[in-house]
Amino acid sequence: MKSPKALSMKYMEMKTLEWQLFNVFALESLTEQSRFADHDAVSFRQILDSVKKFADTELYPVIREMDENPARFEDGTVIVHPAVGTTMKTLGEMGLIGAPLDYEVGGLQIPITLFQALNFVIDAANNHVSGYYNLTFGAAELIAVFGNDKLKEDYLQPMLEGKWGGTMCLTEPQAGSSLSDVETVAIPQDDGSYKLKGQKIWISGGEHKHVDNIVHLVLARIPGGGPGTKGISLLVVPRDRLDGTPNDVTCAGDFQKMGQKGYCTTHIIFGENDDCRGYLVGTEHRGLAHMFQMMNGARLAVGRSAAAIATAAYEASLSFAKERPQGRRLMKGGKKDVSQEQTLIINHPDVRRMLLTQKCVSEASLALILQASYYYDMKHSTEGDEAKDYWLLLELLTPVAKTYPSEAGKRSVDLGLQVLGGSGFCNEYILQLYYRDIRIMSIYEGTTGIQSLDLLGRKILAENGRALDLLEQEINKTLDQAAEFPDQVAQLKEHMALNRDVLKSLLPLVMKGEVEMFLSDATVYMELFSNIVIAWLWMKMAVKAQEEGAGTDFLKAKIHAMKFFFQYELTLNHGLAKVLKTPERLTIAEDDEALLAFA
Amino acid sequence: MKSPKALSMKYMEMKTLEWQLFNVFALESLTEQSRFADHDAVSFRQILDSVKKFADTELYPVIREMDENPARFEDGTVIVHPAVGTTMKTLGEMGLIGAPLDYEVGGLQIPITLFQALNFVIDAANNHVSGYYNLTFGAAELIAVFGNDKLKEDYLQPMLEGKWGGTMCLTEPQAGSSLSDVETVAIPQDDGSYKLKGQKIWISGGEHKHVDNIVHLVLARIPGGGPGTKGISLLVVPRDRLDGTPNDVTCAGDFQKMGQKGYCTTHIIFGENDDCRGYLVGTEHRGLAHMFQMMNGARLAVGRSAAAIATAAYEASLSFAKERPQGRRLMKGGKKDVSQEQTLIINHPDVRRMLLTQKCVSEASLALILQASYYYDMKHSTEGDEAKDYWLLLELLTPVAKTYPSEAGKRSVDLGLQVLGGSGFCNEYILQLYYRDIRIMSIYEGTTGIQSLDLLGRKILAENGRALDLLEQEINKTLDQAAEFPDQVAQLKEHMALNRDVLKSLLPLVMKGEVEMFLSDATVYMELFSNIVIAWLWMKMAVKAQEEGAGTDFLKAKIHAMKFFFQYELTLNHGLAKVLKTPERLTIAEDDEALLAFA
ipTM of the assembly? Predict the structure, then answer.
């Protein structure tokens, strides 16, 4: 049996990432935009290489340790693995924590597309450390975009240097995903600051001693804002004040979890002694809108982590399958020749089916993240109608980019564990760790159910469906280049029409005001819609592989995977469409029958 | 936040189990068979009640402890939770370990259907303990059926009394699922015994000190049997000899796992000092056939454990959803009224969809186990053609009864965790434990891939497809009583025809000898076929509910669940059928291209 050590350094090959980044999504072309004009392909590759080296030497080697020694609450603070400190420090020194930000606030103005790629490498190596600096980036970005000069001056530099950590404080015990019910209050003081009182749960990276301070970005109610989400404001609340004294921010515990055990999940109390000060970010009562600007980035980041875990799982399963002999292939007539040596399990069709599913899901999840990021970069480096169209495409893809890698990625890691058979369930192999870690991704930053409501209830309906029109134009552009694959072109066109059919059967409910009925199967719709997006991305990759001559095994394998996805995954939309077109609504109950279905 | 304590005693209500057992499957009617004539409904219920009480007081309260303090190897033995000893002792005293066996070997001749129900209760309470006595039963059954009088006399009584444990030793490190490659040898000795040499891995319940002895049933090669599975024999190999001296059986370790942590998974070495004695069970070189007689029972047992875990997860999710307020329902026009109190999450359509899926999967998985067990009982209490038909039905359903609860159950527990949102991922709630525990079920006793080969490659083809004909007769009998549900009757008929279509497109491959191609998507076929079987069982339950007047919420909910399954799950077969009917075979590679797809 293999020791975990023998499986090391195999979490990720760079070949597919680099090919997607530089060939399929033509990262270099972004340097034609003035925002990115100081960069070039050489500098992009240098950054990528240095991050890969850091991940290889410092992060992947400790993921098992972080899993086996979970973050834990002790004496008012949380003990986490020292790699958290190393990561903050190293990425801070490399200037990478806030690298996509503007020069003037201390960023490097690198494309988000590249930034996602860097983070993908780190997530694949060790998804327990990445949240610490990712949230620091998110918090810094909010300050950079909405904060006044004083806030920027006081907070940005130590955060971007990795000396201070940052968090997002949304969830409260009584509210969960329902931000309308946030109760933390912020009372204006004469000096322009606010006094905070309230508590927040599930605050990732909320407390540890590997940074000098932790800067919380907190949603709270300033009196006068009215009920619901409209009355919510956003405040900066540091754990320690600028003079180093405590700011009445207390850590009350660390939630113990099934996975991502090295990533602390804290319970934070603000103003237990009525002495917690916060500082307004942006406009009073506009806090949720501000937060959601960052939230889209956070959603892409979750999708990216999921894609990265699925990738690491795929590579681990693949190397097992290439090394493990077991059983024999069936010969013509169905016999096995037991006098022959055992075959490698990669030669069994069912194992190949599982591995090809893993390949399809993990590589396309990466492509989806890069595609959405590319739209983000184009939106931020163009203007007017062009920028608006990129924004609509980004908005449409964001819930999908959060959800598909999380949900299909979970299924993919599950298959990856199955490839190993009983070994997959044993701690000696790493698959069980990925299986546990990836499970949180469909919950973080808005569950799959919430993303699906966003997709069908907002993004598809927005601007009279213009985002979908734009996406179909994008897909058709790809199909126009795909003459080599006529069967799959026809299939994708059929499925685009099927999607329109489904919407045609659902939209009358919106007209009638039956919005709950319209949205009741949004999660099923998410699955159908995602499959179309992923089929498009696979076609885009196959077209590129063909354009490059399809002469190498690497390129041939991309075309093979495209065909596999169309045959085994896109095809399932026929069933999903039938579910969605059924007029009965078995999941909606009159109030007096609410519990009947579960009697 | 809730403490785990507050969630206790909610792992299983008896109502659905009892209704299925006594009403849908008419357990009492089995007492008309002479084999079961000494029993009646009262005695059946007494046994069930006493098991439930034992599970409530001794087993459910310790499952968290067993998870948090995994079985561990120490000084040549394995430390397991004392509940293992309590369980062996209590069930032994109650006569339940071997209760389905014949009176003459110490059994109670209870129906397997009842036995599965008892075990279902225990598995739902604590799936970490059940394997210890279940394998003891399996080992005892092999001795009872195939052993000579001496073996029966020496071993059965202490095993059935729970004083000795039993195991099944199949897997070896180099062979995995490929039993053709078993290398453990058994050399005949002058005294009629055999000298064993070899090692076995993943031996569940293989070593601990809460029983006085452990009796291994070992697959090994007696010279002269030829290669492959035909040369394998079955031997009884006790850890300690009858005189109490050691038999050169060594425990070399305990595998640490992601779930079922209280259930030890050992590495056993036989004959390290050339002094390990075994005793032949049944006929030389017929060991695999003997073992597989028991294996069908073991496969049903795995499906039952999965069904039970899915049930416990469903009840936990349901009670959370009934207590947890969050957000508000959408009113006509799509607005929410934030001045209203938050609604319970059970009222959100997406949560109801998840819970109804859990209900459908867990209750139908139980029904499937009971249906297969009923066929088993009828096979063993009838004769001639009648017995043979029951046997064919049992054979056909066994791979499905192993796989559907394991695979759909995994998906069901995943949805159950999602119902809890972030709480589902936290150790404080039990869902994450069920999520980890159920994951092994699609691997134990033949993976999903292996079960699927069995279904399509053996069971569907056997006796010119007679088993499928018989099953369709069974389904049609139910449909004839289902006049109240014309839409669903039509739908199930359509899907039975679709299944025949799929087989028609696949069978020519068998004729041409292209068996590897025929079987390459067997796992996809398993999913399609299972959905038809489950739809039938839901229809059977709906028909019974209707027959009983459908007047209570309990009965109405069964009919609602049936409709839900047809709409949301059976419908997906349209997509699966299209996958299966595609002639291309993307998972089969010529040898020289074996790795190309993964380049």
Answer: 0.97
